[in-house]
Amino acid sequence: MGSLQLDDFVAGWVGGAAGVIVGHPLDTVKTRLQAGQGYGSTFNCVRTVYKNEAVAGFFKGMSFPLISIAVYNAVVFGVFSSTQRFICQHRYGKSNHPPVLIDLTLASMATGAFSVGIGSPVELVKIRLQMQTQTLLTANLEMKYRATGVSVQNAYRGPIHCVATILQQEGLAGLYRGSTAMFLRDVPGYCLYFIPYAFVSVWITPEECLSPTPFSVWMAGGIAGIISWGTATPMDVVKSRLQADGVYLNKYKGVIDCICQSYHSEGLKVFFRGLTVNTLRGFPVSAATFLGYELSLKALRKEAETNP
């Protein structure tokens, strides 16, 4: 059992790292758009980031999720697989029984709930680092400077300093800012992530194959990513705004307040900000994550069988 857990951890890191590298540039664009910093369109955001910060600007905040994704993905895939086996064992008497829709749904919901504990601080630090732009809204900069005496441009020197600063200024609860919104995003989001993947991978796998082919895994993962991220966008906007809030001003009191303020100031369309980026990003990120996970897991277990 310990070997399996190590396999899941390593495979989770490989898959997660692949997803981060492929999707982080678009994730940076999505975060900037959703936080409402006056970029306007997706194209204008890309152009502005490149003009002010060059290519490196698209990779801000990547080191922390790249390192921590090992633990996060191990939790995500480990909890999903373990919960699915547990449900099948109790419902059918054997853990390897093919799961039905209700089994996949319960396992996905459990995965979403568990993932928030680790994923919320990771997302918070990533977003805080991504939001450190070279050009900020003048009003925000002046108000923050008057309040703290420190320029926001130099607020965080890196992920470790970011965590230390948040703990010092906001306490442990500060690392979980936006966790409620993340819970509301991820519980249904993982249902629309693992369930489409499971069904599509089986559907497009040739009948003569005992397990999904790399192409099936890649395609099913990409489709699952589009569905999951597309539907999660409204709550993802709320989560991003809550987590980015502390970089400038603490203007939101919670999820409901963020929803109300965002709606009153920008209308219903604000909750679909970043939808295009999320959809475009969803396919390659999820395809890379599932493919990296499945291939590395298969390789690790094959090696374990040949070297008992």
From TrEMBL:
- The entry's keywords: Membrane, Mitochondrion, Mitochondrion inner membrane, Repeat, Transmembrane, Transmembrane helix, Transport
Q: What is the first-listed, main subcellular location in coarse terms?
A: mitochondrion
Location of the protein in the cell: Mitochondrion inner membrane
- Is-annotated flag, keyword Mitochondrion? yes
Q: Where are the Solcar repeats?
A: 3-86, 99-203, 212-299
For whether the record's keyword set contains Transmembrane helix, the answer is yes
Gene3D superfamilies xref list: Mitochondrial carrier domain (1.50.40.10)
GO CC entries: mitochondrial inner membrane
Q: Classify the source by domain of life.
A: Eukaryota
Bilayer topology annotation: Multi-pass membrane protein
One term of GO molecular function = transmembrane transporter activity
Q: Which residues cross the membrane?
A: 62-81, 187-204, 216-232
Note one Pfam family from the annotation: Mito_carr
Enumerate the PROSITE patterns for this protein: SOLCAR (PS50920)
Q: Which PANTHER family does the UniProt entry name for this protein? A: MITOCHONDRIAL BASIC AMINO ACIDS TRANSPORTER-RELATED (PTHR45624), SOLUTE CARRIER FAMILY 25 MEMBER 48 (PTHR45624:SF7)
Family label: Belongs to the mitochondrial carrier (TC 2.A.29) family.
Q: What is this protein called?
A: Solute carrier family 25 member 48
Recorded source organism is Python bivittatus
